[in-house]
Amino acid sequence: MHPLYQGAQFLTAATRIEQAPPDQGREVAFVGRSNAGKSSAINAICHQRALARTSKTPGRTQQLIFFSLDAERRLVDLPGYGYAKVSEAIKLEWQGQLARYLEGRLSLAGLIIVMDIRHPLAAFDRQMLAWALRRDLPTLLLLTKADKLSRGAVSATLAQVRKEAAALHGEIHCEPFSAPDRLGLESVQARLDLWLAPSPQIDAA
Ligand code: GDP
């Protein structure tokens, strides 16, 4: 158990970036295509059943959801838009909000891109990664639903994704994950600890 994440609480939902909490302290955002397993990952990391809404209806969430960990630290659940039934106009609107958030949010200390390990690095994931790289934002590629593959297939996919990530020359980490098996939980929490730790040089400036 990790008390910081276990104590995560819903803070606010923002349809537009202007409704986000003040851009202070530090936060880490989760993004992923609909149905990738993002909500399940957030719930597992925070040891809560229903903090982030899991849904069998992909594409339902269209808001940036902020969870507070303490007065200075937050987790953010960003909307995915990888679902075919969502109209082009809505996809573009979400894309615009995501771009503005990812490019402009100063308190954003790291990005976790949640991907189904059976379908890694889709166009959506690559777009998120490109935005993160553009501002040197540390990124974790979380390959979830690892329980759906054999150990050999997990290792092979991990090696392939790591190879592609290494060619991009940014701070890109890559870990397998499974919500029901709680695989990778401690690695992700350790990564969050690092990203959310106050940085005296920057925060004192
Ligand atoms: P989101 O749309 O990205 O938030 O995805 P959800 O967390 O709602 O998960 C989508 C579906 O995948 C749900 O039916 C979950 O139960 C399932 N799921 C999520 N994570 C895992 C996992 O690690 N393993 C397995 N087997 N299923 C998962």
Radius of gyration: 16 Å
What is the topology, as strand order, of the major beta sheet?
Answer: 1-3-4-2-5-6-7
What is the strand tally?
7
Which fold does the CATH topology refer to? Answer: Rossmann fold
Number of structural units classed as domains: 1
Nearest-integer average pLDDT: 91
CATH architecture: 3-Layer(aba) Sandwich
Ranges where pLDDT stays below 50 over 5 or more residues in a row are none
Helix/strand order = HEEHEEHEHEHEHH
Global structural class? alpha/beta
List the ligand species: guanosine-5'-diphosphate
Which band does the percent of strand residues land in? 15-25%
Distance between the termini: 34 Å
Report the helical percentage.
25-40%
By CATH's scheme, which homologous superfamily applies? P-loop containing nucleotide triphosphate hydrolases
Report the sheet with the most strands, covering strand number, pairing sense and barrel closure: 7 strands, mixed
Shape: globular
Top-tier CATH class: Alpha Beta
Total helical elements: 7
